[in-house]
Amino acid sequence: MSIQDLIRTKRAVRDFVKQPISSEVQLAILEAGRRAPSAMNRQPWTFLALTDPEKLEQLGEVSGHAGHLANAAFGIVLLIPEGHWPVFDAGQVSAYMQLAAWDLGVASCVGSFVDPAAARAILEYPEELRPVCCLSFGYPPKDAEGPPRRGGRKLLHEIVHWNKWGTTLP
Ligand SMILES: Cc1cc2nc3c(=O)[nH]c(=O)nc-3n(C[C@H](O)[C@H](O)[C@H](O)COP(=O)(O)O)c2cc1C
């Protein structure tokens, strides 16, 4: 798929079929994240890759907004230090990883942790890092296929101002 088609058709998918993701595909997703740009090329991130179904389930239970981890075939927790730019950088990683996954037929969803301490108790990462979000990956159910539904996005004329504030297209 072209990058335009990947962007257009990618949706947040929270239900996955019980099909493993090969380590080759897992590494391709991680590699896409590694390639993401970052402020001053600091690459402030660490990727905590989750392949253990027990860990995925435990995290899904404590996360609050990432219950979809529980039935994912693969998960990644994005760990960053405090600061403004690391959050932005993690967003770039997240987009790169999800688009690379979708290119390989793997669906995904972002999830956030309402109780980072509970996540840390399970994953044992250093205290100075924080789990900005997690990503669930898995193959989408067959009935999720078919024509992509309409974007559910604001239209360009609602969000773009040309040259100065107030000059929008009709
Ligand atoms: C920063 C960010 C945080 C998100 N957090 C969650 C979350 O905690 N749980 C969840 O189920 N989806 C989460 N999502 C997925 C969004 O709800 C989803 O991308 C949005 O509703 C658009 O859906 P669509 O891409 O299928 O159109 C998050 C997405 C982003 C970019």
Give the arrangement of secondary structure elements:
Layout: H1 3-9, H2 23-34, E1 46-50, H3 53-63, E2 74-80, H4 84-103, E3 107-111, H5 116-123, E4 130-138, H6 156-159
Antiparallel strand pairs: 1-2, 2-4, 3-4
Bound molecules: flavin mononucleotide.
Total number of helical segments? Answer: 6
Order of SSEs: HHEHEHEHEH
Record the strand order, biggest sheet: 1-2-4-3
Distance between the termini: 31 Å
Strand content: 15-25%
CATH class: Alpha Beta
What is the number of domains? 1
- What's the CATH H-level superfamily name? NADH Oxidase
What features would you describe in this structure?
The chain is α+β, with helices and mostly antiparallel strands and 170 residues long. The protein has one domain (3-159): NADH Oxidase, CATH 3.40.109. It is 36% helix and 15% strand. It is built from 6 helices and 4 strands; from the N terminus they run ααβαβαβαβα. It has a 4-stranded antiparallel beta sheet with strand order 1-2-4-3, sandwiched between helices. Bound molecules: flavin mononucleotide.
List keywords for this structure.
170 residues, NADH Oxidase, alpha+beta, single chain, 4-stranded antiparallel β-sheet
How would you sum up this structure in a few lines?
The chain is an alpha+beta fold and 170 residues long. It has 6 helices and 4 strands. The longest helix is centred in the middle third of the chain and has 20 residues, at 84-103.
